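HUMAN: Forgive my ignorance: could you write out one protein's sequence and backbone structure tokens?

ASSISTANT:
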Amino acid sequence: MRTGLQMLLGSCVLFAAQVQAQTPEQPAGPPTPAPEMTTQSAAPTFSTRVNLVMVPVVVRDSKGRAVGSLKEEDFQLFDKGKPQLITRFSIERAGVAPAGSAPEASLGVTPADGRGAAAPDRFLAYFFDDVHLNAADLIQMRAATERHLAEIKEPNRRVAIFSSSGRVTLDFTDDLDKVHETLLRLQPLADSSERDECPPVGYYLADKIRNKNDTQAQNAMVLEAIACLHLDPTDQNSVQIAQSAVNAAVSRMLSVGPHESRLALIVLKDVVRRLSAAPGSRMILLLSPGFFLTTDLRPDETELMDRAIRANVTINSLDARGLYTIIPGGDASQRGVSTAAATAVLTSVEHERATAEADVMAELADATGGTFFHNDNGLQQGLKQLAAQPEFVYVLGFSPQNLKFDGSFHAVKVAVRNSKIYQLQARRGYYAPNHAADPELEAKQEVQEAFFSREEIQEIPVDLHTQFFKSTDVNARLTVLAKVDVRQIQFRKVEDRNNNRLTVIAGVFDRNGNFVTGVQQTVDMRLRDATLAKAQSAGITLRSNLDLTPGTYAIRVVVRDAEGRQMAARNGVVEIPY
């Protein structure tokens, strides 16, 4: 959750007053009976769970068209080759608005139906990897993005700009002038002096020489150092100087390379966190030449995938290099190596590097239901293709059986029964957690996921209404009323009480989808039979008070009960006039 958000506490349960009114006062002496209903309010806090593995899957036919007619029983899911029971199944459809609408007015207040309001529901974060992009590719990528954004005509779409260096950032907006100004500020992080070092050792090559003990690559780079330092290859002292130069370059890159790759993952995770607060479709367009991840960085990549999947964030990747070829010995701007043998070795390493860096882009896209656009100079067309939502995305969830909490990697495979005509794009795997999941944490995460979604859930009938009062020209208090029909809720009987707990979050988002404020309530119900009967007849109305300034806001209310683990999620819109 972003820092600086103003959280407002303070809410009450209307029905609680009725409960207290019907209970006669007890004479002094005997202990006071436990109240039938208590409410605690707090700022909503969110965290991540890891025991439920979510696997987005895009299924395409032989012509590349997305298929949306499959059912849960059509899929097979394997963890390390072992079949798994699919416990969650859903289909995300592009361009489909959330179902349901709020009911007509009751209780003398205004229904929060939001009909006719143009609330934002499409959020695109353009992520420029300025840490790894060179100047030429960044300039082309920036120009293609300008042309692409000029074609956007959707009033409900918001755009943000992020960079892996963190030097250039623009939060979600519909102001294309601000977007243009931000794009012009993008510059590559690396300067030309770093690329012209002698000998030129990249992160992948440094890892190959030092960590994988590749003597062929080591010897080829020594010859490269002799050539670029203009040393005598027959002089032993010159060879030692070249070896020292290679060792120094390798050490530097093994210090810089992991930091740069980890930085890209960290900032991407921050963008996912920011998008998780957006009430609608969420997408990252990763614009990068690719970057290399060693084994020790893979858990960070998996954490990024998990966060994106749980927040319903799609990562689409675009290789900013476009159509490119690897020229043996490098192009005219690069220093050449001294022998044909060294050229062959380093050209082979360069092919391996390009593949490894592109694989990271493909993995992030596959894992989140996105697309990887590469080996194509049509960057503007690529952006247009990636910015369009997949027409259908299946999301399969499973809880691994007999899972060992050892942090090991688990390969995941998805198949469609009785069909060989489909092409599947799915998550490739996950890392096991190092500890068992906390049930309370799981429930909190489930509420979080529902709150930051725009999908309406009606497992528990809930009516949503709002009213507001302006105390000054710039201050207003919004009251959100959620009337819960408890006839659909299960209660656990303990002696003469019917027990359950409701977790309720009410919050508002501004016109750009930014989370503004919210309040979380925990309502503990220990109802006698007579009280429960009245509650089932009249319902329970929960009140949440939020301090706001005038403006148009999207409202989101989520209710979850602890016993039946059922949920309700409702949307609304309110306009507080200036």
